[in-house]
Design brief:
Structural class of chain A: mainly beta
Number of helices of chain A: 0
Number of strands of chain A: 11
Strand content of chain B: over 45%
Oligomer: heterodimer
Distance between the termini of chain A: 36 Å
Radius of gyration of chain A: 13 Å
Largest sheet of chain A: 7 strands, mixed
Largest interface: A-B, 25 and 25 residues
Radius of gyration of chain B: 13 Å
Helix content of chain B: under 10%
């Protein structure tokens, strides 16, 4: 039982490049989430999904897109990366809306 | 605007003593509160939670207290152990069916052996 895994762990992008972060969970959770954490700030919700095929915007959705084609996977896309998107990205999943389980994070640097 | 605030960025405590981490919130719609613990280079892990219908929840060495009138909650760890050294985040959920966890900025706890 791996829990929540994230791929890749580190990535450096140039401004304007695109990339996709992959989150996978093996706990059969309905809910999945993408957060970003910046220095001196708490985690902020980017997008979330309440089930396969559904997505919704969180607190800071601009510049990101998501897809949930399979229940166990939640993808976060950056179409045109900007330096302001330099951050640590965390994926989480939960059975209900409480007690989310987090992945280890992806450290993204945009130069 | 930060709806969940942790005003102490850091706290140092001697091993064996009590650690008290504080959290304040501004949104009266929050009705479920959680504490997460985070080690470097790892994701946050769930520690303990409390519903707004309670004022205390205890799990082993960890106790969370909720004062709704003051919009304040606290996490007590007793006795503190060196392995408790981590960043602690307070988080809140607004109402049934909500999915957006609002996090505080975290408090770094250092337990000195």
């Amino acid at each position: 039982n791996a829990g929540v895994t994230q791929t890749p762990k580190f990535r450096v992008l140039k401004t304007g490049q695109s990339m996709t972060l992959l989150c996978a969970q093996d706990m059969n959770h309905e809910y999945m989430y993408w957060y970003r954490q910046d220095p001196g700030m708490g985690l902020r919700l980017i997008h979330y999904s309440v089930g396969e095929g559904t997505t919704a915007k969180g607190e800071v959705p601009d510049g990101y897109n998501v897809s949930r084609l399979k229940k166990q996977n939640f993808l976060l896309g950056l179409e045109s990366a900007a330096p302001s998107q330099t951050s640590v990205y965390f994926c989480a999943s939960s059975r209900l809306e409480y007690e989310q389980y987090f992945g280890p994070g992806t450290r993204l640097t945009v130069t | 605007d930060q709806q969940v605030k942790q005003n102490s960025p850091s706290l140092s405590v001697q091993e064996g003593r009590i650690s008290i981490l504080n959290c304040d919130y501004t949104n009266s719609m929050f009705d479920y509160f959680l504490w997460y613990k985070k080690y470097p280079a790892e994701g946050p892990t769930f520690l303990i939670s409390i519903s707004s219908i309670k004022d205390k929840n205890e799990d082993g060495r960890f106790t969370v207290f909720l004062n709704k009138s003051a919009k304040h909650l606290s996490l007590h760890i007793v006795p503190s152990q060196p392995g408790d050294s981590a960043v602690y985040f307070c988080a809140a959920l607004p109402g049934t069916g909500a999915n957006n966890l609002f996090f505080g900025t975290g408090t770094r706890l250092t337990v000195i052996p």
